[in-house]
Amino acid sequence: MSEPIDLLFSTPLMSAAFSPEAHVQGMLAFEAALTRAESRAGIIPQEAAAIIEAHCRVELFDVAALYREAAMAGTPAIPLVRMLTAQVEGDAQKFVHWGATSQDAIDTAMMLQMRDGLDLLVDSLHGVCAACATLAAQHRHTLMSGRTLLQQALPITFGLKAARWLAFAVRQVHALRERRERTLAVQLGGAAGTLASLGDMGLQVVELLSEELGLPAPDLPWHTERDRVAEIAATLGVVAGAMAKIADDVALLSQTEVDEASEGAAPGKGGSSAMPQKHNPVDATGAIASARLAVGVVPVILSAMAQEHERAVGGWQAEWAAIPGLFRFTASAVERVRGMIGGLQIEPAHMRANLALTGGLIMAESLTMALAPHVGRPEAHRIVQAACDDAIRSGMNLRQAALADAQVRAHLSPEEIDRALDPGGYLGSTDTFIDRALASYREVESSRGGV
């Protein structure tokens, strides 16, 4: 039941994981696991549990009708339990949904969906990491302009830029893994979070339900304490923001006047209905749009944390739409970036040409630091700034201006000036930073089986 718009702002796998059918199947998985847990605890007969479980299959339900009824009932769990009960015959019927409440089924189903969604995001992020690692290694020594406030600042290498993307993506893998391991939890609290309906067997049933579903058992029910949901939502917001930053970099590098990188070509990709020459950055555009949609959903979930007493009036219900949207939008952002980086076309010659655009002004800090041991950094800064102003006014390059400046020549030889103006000689710890990023990637890949 995915919508056509999902083709633009989701992925097929994430749309399937958060489809209405998947949510209904999640609630049915809860009901089946609950009966197994309660039969293991001796609360309901094993025969009844087997009969109920046999009917907990989504294909036996009219999902569209269930949601139409949910609009009147206020929760999809009410029609689900009614439909399930109607299918179960004999004495087993009276044990359906034993001791649980609607929110137990809905929250647990959501946690199952979120677990699947987190796994999908991690898998896609590994693709982003792999593509960034390849670029970082291949372009370790490819010189380009580093830019601050959109203006040329200092020389860097494209390998370093890719390494920073890589480190950013690796941190998102770690964050999602941590959320999966430490934040997910089963929900079973009964009508008001006391488990009174299960007498003195409630805690045992929670533990058994946890085992059946492979979800951790919480210390207490968390019907209106939504920090678990909020932490996952906030983490996805950060992941989406990270993808937007990478996509934004690529979009800027692909500007006609910059032309240092571009998305890979494919039939029908990136054209214009009016301008035949266009090769638009559609993956970057899609990633940025998807990320903005994702980040926009996060405040809905955070604001929904203010919930009333033992059952929310609106806050919990808002999650039902917000969480699927957040996962879909984030998945789209990640997948768009994966495709974008994987097919990125790099233009080293254009990078080098742009590095020379200012006639060496990009090396002003390097010249300042070469002069600083002789006159102090503040005075060196003043001298080099004056030389830069002279170069701009006269049309000279910085080398010519420095050689013509008596204060510079008093302390630096022409050879020292040339060394200071060599972009390849002013890269600082670039190699080490790239090595660190690649090492972090190898580490996260080696532990991939533990996700």
Brief write-up:
This protein is mostly helical and 451 residues long.
What can you tell me about this protein's structure?
The chain has 451 residues and is mainly alpha-helical. The chain is 63% helix and 4% strand. The chain folds into two domains: 6-352, Fumarase C, Chain A, domain 2, CATH 1.20.200.10; 361-420, Fumarase/aspartase (C-terminal domain) (Ribonucleotide Reductase Protein R1, domain 1), CATH 1.10.40. It has helices spanning 6-9, 12-17, 20-40, 46-54, 63-73, 77-87, 102-138, 158-182, 202-213, 227-253, 282-303, 315-342, 348-355, 364-375, 377-394, 398-404, 406-409, 414-420, 430-446, and strands at 143-148, 151-157, 261-262, 345-346. The strands form two sheets. Strands 1-2 form a two-stranded antiparallel ribbon. A two-stranded antiparallel sheet has the order 3-4. α3 (20-40) packs antiparallel against α4, α7 packs across α19 and α10 packs parallel to α12 (315-342). The model has no long low-confidence stretch (mean pLDDT 95).
CATH superfamily of the largest domain: Fumarase/aspartase (Central domain)
Q: Can you give the mean pLDDT? A: 95
CATH architecture verdict of the largest domain? Up-down Bundle
CATH topology of the largest domain: Fumarase C, Chain A, domain 2
Q: Number of folding domains?
A: 2
Portion of residues in beta strands equals: under 5%
What's the CATH C level of the largest domain? Mainly Alpha
- End-to-end Cα distance, whole Å, is 29 Å
Got a strand count? 4
Q: With helices defined by DSSP (H or I, 4 residues minimum), what is the helix count?
A: 19
